[in-house]
Each structure stands twice: as structure tokens, then as C-alpha cells.
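Form P-L/3: holo structure prediction, ligand hypoxanthine.
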Amino acid sequence: MDPTPDAAIGALKAHGLDSLPPLAIVLGSGLGAFADEARDAIAVSYLDIPGFPVPTVEGHAGRLVVGAIEGRRVALFQGRGHYYERGDPGAMRLAIDAFRELGGEALLLTNAAGGLNKEWAPPSLVAITDHINFSGANPLIGYIGHDRFVPLTRAYDEALLATLHEAARTADVEINEGVYMWFSGPSFETPAEIRAARILGADLVGMSTVPEVILARRAGLRCAAVSVVTNYAAGLAGGDPSHEETQAVASQAADRFKRLLRAFIRQYEPRRA
Ligand code: HPA
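OUTPUT (holo model):
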């Protein structure tokens, strides 16, 4: 494990990013282009930041873009590292730690997910209220020190969740709430796994976000997360889920999702120090 984010911070400073804004958004499938809407932006390729993940997934650009949206400075992670890419559940560790060190306090994660609720027709948007880690992995394995024992009782911040709902209302976007279950991927689930997930209390299944939330909570960041349901989970609707479908359906929701993000950026209030 790389010990500290120092080298990453040095690279960010060398690109003019001496500090980062309090809010960062991780842009998942279909949302990457939102970063292009940032004004007066500084964009740094993950390739130029030591320890940042080099994405192997098509549709995930791999850039940190810092600029103004709705007149407010935000950090946009255009693409993420996934556990399934290299077997490292801590793929986003240095990105998250560097964000925190340079001034970050809140992380909004977005993703594409399979839906277990038949009433959520793709591409519905769902705010994540809690998660189930079904991957067997944890990004904090290998950490030394008491702060590895991170409580996850309120992993998803109530105030940020309220802001998401308020943003949805003002942007006239429908948003539901649900529990997200993390599967390692990259294979999709079996119908039996989806039946098990249902019994265990999941509303959504996906291959990201949970390790980032665990890392962010260890770093002391507040978290919120939103899924776009790109398909009914395996076995619920007959067809096979696929990466192509995930990308295509996520793109259909992009305009709505961007309206929600803009309203969230406007209404987000940094935690008082
Ligand atoms: N399962 C896991 N991840 C996903 C799915 C799914 O059905 N759809 C989009 N991402």
C-alpha cells in the first residue's frame, strides 16, 4: 500500500491546485461529460497524479477537474478505480485522502446500478441511504491504527441526503431511496444472488461506491450517493445485463442527473468547522 498522499498532493499543487473545494463529486457511468461544464477549470489526468487510479473501463476518463458550476467551485472526479480492475479495493484511497488533505469535506458519489424494485423503471434515480458490503473485500485491510475501525452507522450523511431531496424537488427530478449492495464484479450477478440480495435487504446492486464511502468515512468526509438504475437486476426482467446497456441507459438519464447535480451544488452547505 502506498503510504501517504504526499506525492499526489505535490502533483496537484504543481498543476495549480493548492487547495480543493469542500465538495467533490465522483462521476460514474454516463455522467463524465458533466465535468466539461465546469468553468475556469483546471483538469489533471490521473496519469499525472501519483497513486490516482488509471481507469481501464471505457467511459471513465480518469481526470480530476476543478472548476465552477452554478458559480461554485467543485472538484469532479471524472472516472473512478474499481476493485474489479486490479483487485485493489483501495483503488480510490489516495484520491480521497488527497481531496481531504487539500480541503475537501463532502463527497457525492454517483454510479450505475441494477435495480431490485420493479417499480423503478430504468433509468430511475435512487439516493443511497445505506449499503451492504457483499464483496468480501474492504479497502481498509492493511491499514494500521485505530482509525481503521471506522463506524458506518451513519455512512450516508443525513443532511446531505436532505439536500439531495431538496435539490431533486427544485430541479423537478424524481428520486427514490434505497440500500445498495456491493458485489465485486466484473461479472454480473446470478438470479439466485439477486434473490439473496432481496432477502438481505438490498434495493440496488453495483460494483463501486461502497469502498469509496468506507475510505471517505475513515478520512472524515461526509458522504452522499446516487444511483441511476440502468437495468432490472439479473433474473427480474428476462434479458441479460451488459456493460453496453449500462452505458446507453445511464446516458439517457444524463440530462436529468445533471440537473439534479446542479441543484445539489447550489444548495450544498459546507459543514461548519
Ligand atoms: N449489477 C451490478 N452492477 C451494475 C448493474 C447490475 O445489474 N447494472 C449497472 N451496474
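COMMENT: Strands lie at 23-27, 39-45, 63-69, 72-78, 106-115, 125-133, 176-182, 204-206, 222-232.
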